[in-house]
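User: Predict the structure for this protein chain, please.
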Amino acid sequence: MAPRTSGDSVRVRVNGDELALAAGTTVAELVATLCEQTRGVAVAVDREVVPRSTWERVVVRDGAEVEVVAAAAGG
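Assistant: Here is the predicted structure, written as structure tokens:
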């Protein structure tokens, strides 16, 4: 799923679904696999919002609970 070459993987829950990710996957890499556009996207890991400015540095750890939310226009 993520572009890491390590054989290790981690299990995480993303928006309620369990996924296996390559060890070392960052929030930015995860969002890129889930969303066509990143504008209007917010991410929380273990109930803490991850600022967009840190997505490239924050590694998704084994057992993490991740919520990825995209804003939708309309009313």
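The chain has one domain: 9-70.
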